[in-house]
């Protein structure tokens, strides 16, 4: 091995040499993790409130997940969808038993799960109503993935600039504004797509009135309701899926992120009637439903889907919110703290508009990892099993970080 590739020589500068410049990562290079703690190459430790962007829902190095991965690694990794496999059937069985859904399609990511959902709503409408019923409505500030189709359904124009011509037949209403949706929905609408809590758009929960109104408008116009639960799913809000706490059932639900606890996997869930439009050959995925991913996801699902775990998410949430509000008041930085469960956003006040990134960077300096959700919201999405001690230590570090800039 040449000196050039020796381990100690990999730094943030290596990224600039060898990686496409679409990310701007930290100078820290994390090397190992345990629970909600991470250590970098230099041995510094950090409390992880970022959770790999709501992905590592059981923290790092969780014994049940490590065991599932190792056990399956000794058996079979990949087959393709010419065959099926036991871990995939087991996981689909669990997902359908625990939710409204009858059928599951496996993918590798949230973007792919959404791509499948958006193709399915058009195919279903085409099969059942004809080709005119093809329009998709989603909401401004929403985020649904990075493929060309999903980024267009997303409501943030900055992500589509320079990629024109864009897929058509997509429009955007105002989130939490029923009149705005009512004004554009019609019998040509095949689906309304929404996040129960807007994630990248600033951690904005849907109001109960809004979500029920959206469901009613979809029913009135024979449009399907798609819930993008990529970020809110698998226990994040204190329910297995957020829709379960909203008194509304979608027709299609997408899930990923926490579903694999860090192993790439996603899924689209729907009913028998709607699933019937995906006949053999209409859609597919080489890796989707591979035994390795499904084995890990089974372990994640079994660990999170218990009344105790889901209740503890709500208890921990209340603790974190109270402390964040206290920090916000003390240093005059946050106007409010919002979200559901362990998907939380501390909203910067007038004085701090546009400066969310400063809080992330100060966090790194003080040994805590947090996220942003846009320019004006500091986002926390820690592991659902984060301990009280890790919460306290992390929030103490976060307070020091805030103090250092405020």
From TrEMBL:
GO terms for molecular function: identical protein binding; N2-acetyl-L-ornithine:2-oxoglutarate 5-aminotransferase activity; pyridoxal phosphate binding. Its cofactor is pyridoxal 5'-phosphate. Homodimer. This is Acetylornithine aminotransferase. It catalyses: N(2)-acetyl-L-ornithine + 2-oxoglutarate = N-acetyl-L-glutamate 5-semialdehyde + L-glutamate. Pyridoxal 5'-phosphate binds at residues 143, 228-231, 286. N(2)-acetyl-L-ornithine binds at residues 146, 285. Belongs to the class-III pyridoxal-phosphate-dependent aminotransferase family. ArgD subfamily. It comes from Kangiella koreensis (strain DSM 16069 / JCM 12317 / KCTC 12182 / SW-125). May also have succinyldiaminopimelate aminotransferase activity, thus carrying out the corresponding step in lysine biosynthesis. The modification N6-(pyridoxal phosphate)lysine is found at residue 257.
